[in-house]
Design a protein that fits this description.
By secondary structure, this protein is α+β, with helices and mostly antiparallel strands. The chain folds into two domains: 29 residues; 97 residues, 2-Layer Sandwich (Tetrahydropterin Synthase, Chain A), CATH 3.30.479. It is built from five helices and four strands; from the N terminus they run ααβββαααβ. Strands 1, 2, 3 and 4 form a four-stranded antiparallel β-sheet that branches. A hairpin with a 4-residue loop joins β2 and β3. The chain is elongated.
Length: 164
Protein backbone atom coordinates (compact mmCIF):
# COMPACT_ATOMS: atom_id res chain seq x y z
CA UNK A 1 0.00 0.00 0.00
CA UNK A 2 1.08 3.42 -0.70
CA UNK A 3 0.99 6.40 1.54
CA UNK A 4 -1.89 7.81 -0.36
CA UNK A 5 -3.92 4.63 0.20
CA UNK A 6 -3.22 4.70 3.94
CA UNK A 7 -4.19 8.29 4.26
CA UNK A 8 -7.36 7.58 2.30
CA UNK A 9 -8.30 4.82 4.73
CA UNK A 10 -7.64 6.99 7.78
CA UNK A 11 -9.51 9.96 6.35
CA UNK A 12 -12.74 8.09 5.62
CA UNK A 13 -14.63 9.81 8.40
CA UNK A 14 -12.44 12.83 8.26
CA UNK A 15 -10.71 11.88 11.53
CA UNK A 16 -7.57 9.85 11.95
CA UNK A 17 -8.22 6.44 13.42
CA UNK A 18 -6.61 5.49 16.70
CA UNK A 19 -6.47 2.04 18.02
CA UNK A 20 -7.81 3.25 21.46
CA UNK A 21 -4.62 3.60 23.53
CA UNK A 22 -4.74 7.40 23.50
CA UNK A 23 -8.33 7.42 24.71
CA UNK A 24 -7.50 5.01 27.51
CA UNK A 25 -4.61 7.18 28.72
CA UNK A 26 -6.79 10.29 28.75
CA UNK A 27 -9.58 8.48 30.60
CA UNK A 28 -7.08 7.05 33.11
CA UNK A 29 -5.61 10.49 33.79
CA UNK A 30 -9.08 11.97 34.26
CA UNK A 31 -9.96 9.15 36.66
CA UNK A 32 -6.78 9.72 38.69
CA UNK A 33 -7.49 13.47 38.91
CA UNK A 34 -11.02 12.75 40.16
CA UNK A 35 -9.67 10.24 42.71
CA UNK A 36 -7.11 12.74 44.05
CA UNK A 37 -9.73 15.49 44.22
CA UNK A 38 -12.08 13.16 46.10
CA UNK A 39 -9.32 12.18 48.51
CA UNK A 40 -8.49 15.83 49.18
CA UNK A 41 -12.10 16.76 49.82
CA UNK A 42 -12.61 13.73 52.06
CA UNK A 43 -9.53 14.45 54.15
CA UNK A 44 -10.52 18.12 54.47
CA UNK A 45 -13.93 17.07 55.78
CA UNK A 46 -12.44 14.57 58.22
CA UNK A 47 -9.77 16.95 59.54
CA UNK A 48 -11.94 20.03 59.90
CA UNK A 49 -11.48 21.87 63.20
CA UNK A 50 -13.80 21.14 66.05
CA UNK A 51 -16.01 23.91 67.43
CA UNK A 52 -14.22 26.56 69.47
CA UNK A 53 -14.00 26.30 73.24
CA UNK A 54 -16.44 29.14 73.66
CA UNK A 55 -19.09 27.42 71.53
CA UNK A 56 -20.31 25.32 74.43
CA UNK A 57 -20.69 26.99 77.84
CA UNK A 58 -18.44 25.36 80.46
CA UNK A 59 -20.01 23.55 83.36
CA UNK A 60 -20.28 25.87 86.36
CA UNK A 61 -18.18 24.81 89.30
CA UNK A 62 -18.59 26.66 92.56
CA UNK A 63 -15.31 26.69 94.46
CA UNK A 64 -15.11 28.40 97.78
CA UNK A 65 -12.12 30.71 98.14
CA UNK A 66 -9.29 29.53 100.30
CA UNK A 67 -8.60 30.97 103.74
CA UNK A 68 -5.44 33.09 103.92
CA UNK A 69 -3.70 34.04 107.15
CA UNK A 70 -0.88 36.60 107.03
CA UNK A 71 2.01 36.07 109.41
CA UNK A 72 3.49 39.14 111.09
CA UNK A 73 6.63 40.44 109.37
CA UNK A 74 9.63 38.55 110.72
CA UNK A 75 12.98 40.29 111.09
CA UNK A 76 15.78 37.97 112.13
CA UNK A 77 19.47 38.84 112.54
CA UNK A 78 21.68 36.01 111.33
CA UNK A 79 25.37 35.50 112.08
CA UNK A 80 27.66 33.67 109.69
CA UNK A 81 30.79 34.04 111.86
CA UNK A 82 32.20 37.05 110.00
CA UNK A 83 29.33 39.50 109.87
CA UNK A 84 25.69 39.97 110.79
CA UNK A 85 22.97 39.76 108.18
CA UNK A 86 19.34 40.64 108.48
CA UNK A 87 16.50 38.53 107.07
CA UNK A 88 13.12 40.14 106.56
CA UNK A 89 10.32 37.72 105.75
CA UNK A 90 6.63 38.21 104.99
CA UNK A 91 4.59 35.07 104.41
CA UNK A 92 0.98 34.00 104.00
CA UNK A 93 -0.45 30.64 105.01
CA UNK A 94 -3.21 29.12 102.91
CA UNK A 95 -5.79 26.80 104.48
CA UNK A 96 -8.78 24.83 103.21
CA UNK A 97 -11.99 26.83 102.70
CA UNK A 98 -13.66 24.84 105.47
CA UNK A 99 -11.14 26.14 108.02
CA UNK A 100 -12.44 29.24 109.81
CA UNK A 101 -10.02 32.15 110.02
CA UNK A 102 -10.92 32.61 113.69
CA UNK A 103 -9.44 29.19 114.46
CA UNK A 104 -6.13 30.08 112.75
CA UNK A 105 -5.55 33.63 114.04
CA UNK A 106 -4.58 32.74 117.66
CA UNK A 107 -1.82 30.43 116.40
CA UNK A 108 -0.05 32.99 114.19
CA UNK A 109 2.16 34.62 116.89
CA UNK A 110 3.31 31.18 118.08
CA UNK A 111 4.16 30.18 114.49
CA UNK A 112 6.10 33.44 114.01
CA UNK A 113 8.10 32.87 117.22
CA UNK A 114 8.86 29.25 116.36
CA UNK A 115 10.01 30.04 112.81
CA UNK A 116 12.11 32.94 114.13
CA UNK A 117 13.91 30.60 116.53
CA UNK A 118 14.38 28.03 113.79
CA UNK A 119 15.82 30.59 111.36
CA UNK A 120 18.34 31.79 113.98
CA UNK A 121 20.08 28.42 113.66
CA UNK A 122 20.44 28.65 109.87
CA UNK A 123 23.58 29.73 108.07
CA UNK A 124 22.78 32.79 105.88
CA UNK A 125 24.46 31.10 102.89
CA UNK A 126 21.71 28.45 102.95
CA UNK A 127 19.04 31.10 102.43
CA UNK A 128 20.43 32.49 99.19
CA UNK A 129 18.74 31.75 95.87
CA UNK A 130 15.80 29.48 95.18
CA UNK A 131 16.96 26.90 97.72
CA UNK A 132 16.52 29.49 100.47
CA UNK A 133 12.86 29.98 99.63
CA UNK A 134 12.30 26.25 99.54
CA UNK A 135 14.00 25.90 102.92
CA UNK A 136 11.86 28.68 104.46
CA UNK A 137 8.66 27.22 102.99
CA UNK A 138 9.46 23.76 104.32
CA UNK A 139 10.35 25.16 107.75
CA UNK A 140 7.15 27.21 107.88
CA UNK A 141 5.06 24.22 106.80
CA UNK A 142 6.64 22.02 109.48
CA UNK A 143 6.22 24.60 112.24
CA UNK A 144 2.63 25.48 111.27
CA UNK A 145 1.51 21.86 111.04
CA UNK A 146 3.15 21.11 114.39
CA UNK A 147 1.63 24.15 116.10
CA UNK A 148 -1.89 23.72 114.71
CA UNK A 149 -2.14 19.95 114.90
CA UNK A 150 -5.76 19.33 113.83
CA UNK A 151 -5.77 22.06 111.17
CA UNK A 152 -4.03 21.25 107.90
CA UNK A 153 -1.99 23.81 106.03
CA UNK A 154 -2.55 23.76 102.27
CA UNK A 155 0.29 25.98 101.05
CA UNK A 156 2.90 28.50 102.21
CA UNK A 157 3.22 31.64 100.10
CA UNK A 158 6.22 33.91 100.49
CA UNK A 159 5.37 37.53 99.76
CA UNK A 160 8.75 39.04 100.49
CA UNK A 161 12.11 37.59 101.53
CA UNK A 162 15.06 39.92 101.79
CA UNK A 163 18.51 38.93 103.06
CA UNK A 164 20.90 41.86 103.46
Amino acid sequence: MTKAAMSAESDRDGLPSFDGTGNRIVLTLLGLMLAFAGTGIGSALMLRPSPAQGAHPPARVDVAPAVYATLPTLTVTLNDGRRLQELRLRAVLEFDPATPLEAVTPHLPRIADAIGRRLLEVDPAELRGAEGQVYVKDALRYVANKTMRPLKLRQVLIQDMLLR
